[in-house]
Amino acid sequence: MVSKHLIKMPFFHSKIRALLTFMGVPNCGKRYMAELLVKADERLETFQAFQMDQYNDAFSTEQPFSSTIENDVVAFVQAHPKSLLFFEDIDKADTQVQLALSMLFSEAKPSTVDFSEVVVVMSTTRLSALLKRADLQTLFRQDPLQAHTFVMERLAQEEMSFNGNKERVFNAKLLSLLNEGALIPFNPLSLTALIKIGAHSLHTLSYQFNQQSGVQMEYKNIDTFISLLTLSLAPCLNARYIQTKLPETLFNGVYTLLKQRPKVTHITYTVSLKAKAFVRDALSNQPLLLKKIGKQQWRIRLEWSLHVKGNQANYTLKHAFYTKEQLHVNTQDALCISEVTFQDIAGQERVKEALREVLTLFKEPERLKHFSMLPPKGMILYGPAGMGKKLLARAFAHEADMPYIVLRDANLFDGAKIHKAYAQAYSSAPAIVILEDIDVQGITSEVISTMNVAPVIEELDALTQSFETPLFTIVSIAQKDDIPDALIKTGRLDICIEVPKLDMQARRFFIEEILKMPHDDNIDVERVVRYISGMGGDA
Questions:
Q1: DSSP assignment, residue 408?
Q2: Residues ≥6 apart with Cβ < 8 Å to 192
Q3: Positive or negative CA dihedral for 290, 369, 393, 530?
Q4: What residues have CB less than 8 Å from 258, skipping those under 6 apart?
Q5: Is the model more confident about 462 or about 378?
Q6: DSSP 3-state assignment of 480?
Q7: How many CB atoms are located within 10 Å of the residue 333 CB?
Q8: What is the DSSP letter of 92?
Q9: What would the pLDDT profile of 300-319 be if each residue is shown by its tens digit?
Q10: Are 428 and 338 in contact (CB under 8 A)?
Q11: Cα-Cα-Cα-Cα dihedral of 408, 413, 415, 418, to 10°?
Q12: How many CB atoms are closer than 10 A to CB 305?
């Protein structure tokens, strides 16, 4: 696909031979692909990478980086006219640097250097979550021009916070130049590809280790062995991490062994039948495996045994098993997995039934697809404090099988944190953003007020909802009358569910819990239940 774009580039109206934009998640092979292009194209001789996070005027008090990058590029091309220039993470460069590059490679500015044989590749991780969506991937296959236009429009909307102000990530003239070139989306590497990367890295280090130490490394059941080592590195399953961490994980044990048993000259690794069965079952359903180690926070642990006899050492990978990372219900600034179910919440049956109706819109998408409708973007839970809104939101997340992130208190007044929360949830979608007690008061500009909902509205309006990767917002507030009108406009949070005062079933539950402690046997439970009508669970 990439080489096909290069062939078409004679129609590219610029002083350079070709311009490609590589987009995708970090460590998905963008730079490696650029390096392969040099090997595959006979007209290219040299590869040169520029780390664009090093060209940012925001952190410089000396010479502007806009002139520095121009000097660096010109000097390199003068020495290597048939080269591929790879600008890694172009979005991290200062916009003036981006402008300088756009002027350098476009016809707008004359140049003393011949760029006619130069291929320019710019990479970015922006919109990575969007590129993972099945509907956009389908659009790239069926109508690449429309997909290209859509992505370029979204890039133009990308913003970042700097010194409390929002700024555009990309310079407009650079985007105009990129729009003339080809846009290449990169999918995250598959498990199979990552396992192959791990195998190559381990073989390379094993050979180097043998040459330096004279110790022979032997791997039996090599495919199964590498697969287990790779999976044990979850959730950090990316090429760069696996390349460095997988050999390090294995050889740390080897170095320790040789310190204790310096006479060992041969080390063998074997895999037990139990461990083989585990990895076979895990890899037989890769979507389920990725769901477990990703959104459900399961980790894979390995259990080893070591037997040493003379100069021979044998490591056996005895067992592999899942372990669950424990995440606190109140965790902030991170995606959480809810263990709270509707059954754990006493009473509020009418509320739970309403929430189940909302859940069916996600679990039975045909209901909405029949009317050409998309999933809702969120809902508002309103009712007095202590009636279970927070627990109900978490139970909803559990029943929806979605991770969630919580914003509350001071974080509600920080637009940057709101944007970060949505970006994090979007990259892990399907996911839920919970905004707790948005009617809480805080001090902004020396004035006591409630939160400004504009950042939330901005995120909701920018959200491209889908059935495959929905992002759902749950807002809690005490009074229905205090719900900002802007939040409940059509296409935003147009579902409102009341969480009323506790019913008799819930009140009885709390009284029975209290009475598990030593108490007077003459207490009339039903009378107390009637007496505490109106009280909440935190009373």
A1: -
A2: none
A3: negative
A4: 213, 215, 264
A5: 378
A6: helix
A7: 12
A8: G
A9: 999 999 999 999 999 999 99
A10: no
A11: 10
A12: 12
**C-alpha dihedral (455, 460, 461, 462), degrees to nearest 10:** 90
Alpha-carbon torsion angle 506, 511, 515, 517, nearest 10 = 80
Contact 537, 506 (CB under 8 A): yes
Cis bond before residue 430 (omega within 30° of 0): yes
Helix (H) or strand (E) holding 46: strand 46-51
Q: What is the pLDDT of residues 211-255, one digit of tens each?
A: 999 999 999 989 999 999 999 888 777 777 888 888 888 888 899
Amino acid at 25: V
pLDDT above 50 (res 11): no
- Residue found under tokens 């309403």: 354
Integer Cα distance of 185 and 24 in angstroms: 6
Q: Where are the beta strands (DSSP E) in 253-368?
A: 266-271, 298-309, 312-324
Q: Which residues contact 30 (CB under 8 A, 6 or more apart)?
A: 22, 24, 88, 123, 186
Position 329 confidence tier, pLDDT thresholds 50, 70, 90: very low
Give 171-192 as a DSSP string. -HHHHHHHHHSEEEE-PPPPHH
Decide if 338 contacts 350 (C-beta within 8 A). Answer: no
Contacts of 188 (CB under 8 A, 6+ apart): 24, 25, 28, 132
27 closest CA partner among 96, 104, 115, 89: 89
Burial of residue 431 (CB within 10 Å: 0-12, 13-18, 19+) is buried
The pair of structure tokens assigned to 246 is: 């997988």
- Between helix 191-213 and helix 239-260 the angle, nearest 10°, is 40
- 270's CB contacts (< 8 A; 6+ apart) are 220, 221, 314, 315, 316, 317
At residue 388, the 3 state secondary structure works out as coil
**Is pTM, for the whole model, over 0.85?**
no
Q: Residue written as tokens 């199964």?
A: 224
- 3-class DSSP string for 288-310: HHHHHHCCCCEEEEEEEEEEEEC
How many other β-carbons are positioned within 10 Å of the β-carbon of residue 16? 20
DSSP 336: B
